[in-house]
Design brief:
The chain is of the alpha+beta class and 301 residues long. The protein has 12 helices and 11 strands. The strands form 3 sheets. Strands 1-7-6-5-8-10-9 form a 7-stranded antiparallel beta sheet, sandwiched between helices. Strands 2-11 form a two-stranded antiparallel ribbon. Strands 3-4 form a two-stranded antiparallel sheet.
């Protein structure tokens, strides 16, 4: 289990924001927008303003970079949170993708309905290795297949295996350095599926049925402190941007591997954070990518 390092001030702030969010839960978005347009700024406006850059921020960043030169930055870029002591399931490696970029980009679609076929362990390994794995080792630093702020890699990757070959149903943490899955939870597929999908929310009536068929879900969290120590509040934007890079990599890699994907973010944050046992402050769930074999038809642009 990862250490929880949130301070009392952060907990109090989180509670205040939670209470505010709860107080607005039954109010239509358009009502809140109309009021905030003429009254106080929306929290999204505050976030955007507080994460803007200017010459002062650039000067502070340069000074900060000077402070971080050498061993400290190298150590930060090699942070390996992992889950020491948990069983590591090794994944196949040296798995090629026989697809060209143009074909993958033109054929990718968000697919909601999945076939009953399980996803093979080989395909799980292929998607993780090429989508989020280590691509090169440069001067002792492990570089991954997606861009990252300062090569700090604040996105953490969790895998919910619901119907896979040669991999027990369960919740796993992907360790890119070792190209393996740390076992966080093994469970019967149906209770695990209910627990995970219980946090998914959508206004579309067919989503629940579609999610019942999904064999593999990759859950992405952001470890904010890993970049804020270098970039300040601006680092929060960078974490969100990186999860977008990661999700697109997973979707394109899945397409190249003969799978279909569907990115999803309309989940209950508290539910998903509790599921992954993250505190929602230092680390929080940000995105999900559903993967499987297409059931035929039922795609969205």
């Amino acid at each position: 289990m990862k250490p929880r390092e949130d301070t009392e001030e952060l907990r109090e702030l989180g509670q205040q924001l939670y209470d505010r969010r709860r107080s607005l839960a039954d109010e239509p978005f358009v009502t809140a927008f109309r009021r905030s347009a003429f009254d106080s700024p929306d929290v999204a406006d505050v976030f955007h303003e507080n994460t803007k850059t200017d010459r002062r921020w650039q000067r502070r960043t340069r000074e900060n970079s000077n402070e971080l030169r050498g061993r400290l930055h190298a150590a930060a870029s090699e942070v390996d949170p992992d889950y020491p002591g948990r069983e590591l399931v090794s994944l196949p490696d040296d798995l090629s993708l026989n697809a060209d970029v143009e074909t993958v980009l033109q054929s990718r679609r968000s697919v909601r309905s999945h076939a009953p076929d399980p996803v093979s362990l080989r395909d799980v390994a292929r998607v993780l290795q090429h989508g989020v794995g280590v691509s090169t080792v440069d001067d002792g630093k492990r570089k991954r297949t997606y861009p990252s702020p300062g090569a700090l890699y604040p996105t953490e990757i969790y895998v919910a295996a619901l119907r896979t070959e040669n991999l027990d149903a369960g919740l796993y943490y992907y360790n890119a350095k070792r190209h393996g899955l740390r076992v966080l939870r093994r469970d019967d597929p149906q209770p695990l599926r209910r627990d995970i999908l219980g946090g998914f929310r959508s206004g579309k009536s067919n989503d629940a049925r579609s999610f019942d068929d999904v064999p593999l879900i990759v859950l992405l969290t952001g470890s904010f402190a890993r970049v804020k120590f270098k970039y300040g509040a601006r680092g929060y934007r960078y974490v969100l941007q990186e999860t977008g890079h990661v999700a697109q990599n997973l979707l394109l890699t899945a397409e190249a591997a003969g799978l279909s994907g569907f990115p999803y973010a309309a989940f209950d944050d508290d539910h998903m954070n509790d599921l992954l046992d993250v505190d929602g402050v230092n680390e929080a769930t940000l995105y999900a990518v559903l993967l499987g074999h297409e059931a035929g038809g039922g795609t969205d642009e």
